[in-house]
Amino acid sequence: MTQRFNLLDEPWIRVSRLDGAPDEVSLLTLFREATDIAGIHGEIASQDVAILRLLLAICHRAMDGPEDLDTWREYWEAEHLGRDVIDYLERYRERFDLRDPDRPFFQVAGIHAASGKTSGLESLIADVPNGNPFFTTRMARGLESIGWAEAARWLVHVHAFDPSGIRSGAVGDPSVKRGKGYPIGPGWTGQIGTVTVTGESLERTLLLNTAVCENLPDLVDVDPEQDLAPWERENDGPAGSHDLEPTGPVSCYTWQTRRVLLHGDDAGVTSLFLGNGDKATPQNRYLVEPMTAWRYSEPQTKKFKTPVYMPRKLPTDRAFWRGLSTVVAQLSPKVTVKGAGTVTQYRSPGVVSFYQELMRRRIVPAGGLIPLRAVGIEYGNNESTVSELVDDVLPLPAGLLDPENTRLLAVVHDAMEETEQVASALRNLAGNLDRARGGSPDTASAARKHSSESFYQVIDERFPRWLASLDEADPVRARDQWRRLLHSEAWEQQEALASAVPDTAFAGRGEGKGRMDVGKALFFFRRALNVAVPAPVQQDSIAENNKNEERTPA
Fold it and tell me: In 98, 244, 324, 360, which residue has its Cα 20 to 30 A from 425's Cα atom?
């Protein structure tokens, strides 16, 4: 008798309930009880978002698009998403069996290498550094076998985030050379920086991210019958495609970057075949991929001779709030492109644009905070290893998505610019103090970097709190509060930097205009600080002078 592991029935998705209790549920249970589930919480954040994108693909197909916003609104108000999704899944029940001998879920039946060799589980599980197993919590229990439930989670993850590199060559794949499949890049989700709008429950999160393309200029209005999931199509063969084009969100969320076959027995999975699948190219995919911001690329534009936007990956050295201009369209700067005029430097994630449309239609509140979660992976050398995982959250005031709320937008824009100017002034101070003590260009660079990190270590905690306060605070008063905080923190950082230099730095180093000492460094810093952020007393004085000038008759 053939053993089964059907994802509709078997618990495999790790979640947190609204009361905080952890649980592990099947697909049918998840959708049946989505209003009682807070979110997905598996082994790592990238696994959570990979599974969320699978769930969103299911929602898009079960909702038949949705075709328009009226259809979406019925799901939002009537809460019958679970019922329709379960009916949909039952129609494809046999395609969700992980161990089906002919059509195993997200796998290719019978795929194998000419040598007959398979890969170890370290190639499936992202939190085990391949070739560097000494920095992992898994060594205590080893990697000889994992259960089918865990294997299912990592199977979804490997299609989304598998690093680039040489993979096993499949028999029947014409691109294989000498038994090897040569690099085609990471999984599609690994090439973007995912942004998710988080709702009060998993059901709300799913609906808020099932973006309706109607009336959204940055998303193509997809024909549902053209944007199919793998379980709705014929089986993939051993050969991947280098020319396949994603047709909409569903194909992006379920992109088969690899060709996989899990090997094991009733006790669990022990090895797998892992080969190349469908290559994903990133240029101008904003029309079909709603869960990432996009940046204008001058090199790609020159290459293709048309404006090109690339996915904005999440930087590992900058908190999510510092990328607000990539999320809020009104904060994006403009760039001039030869032959195309003026374009925005960034395009907002489609899910954020969709929420903005929901606000405009008064389906969701125009106030309050919108919790955004950003998850991405930073790859190492040649994108062949996982270097770092990015996982950040940001409570975004809904007012920032209102294009007519110009005062609030201006306050946030100015606060971000002034913060960067203060960081720049501190970097210059650190560099100048290093010159005063007789440092080298290398030590000056290190000092500048350290001062920036120390400053943002404080600001990265405070800015999101200040941003959240804008939901209720007066924007002008909030701006002044932020300026006082900036000024205070800048002075504290200055004192820490100045107190760390040796006495010889007060005498300084260098000759003529190139000479630098502590006094000169502090003078330059304070002048830059006052230009960037006037001290509160100066602000009040300037405001009073302006009022007096207005009262004075011409």
Answer: 324
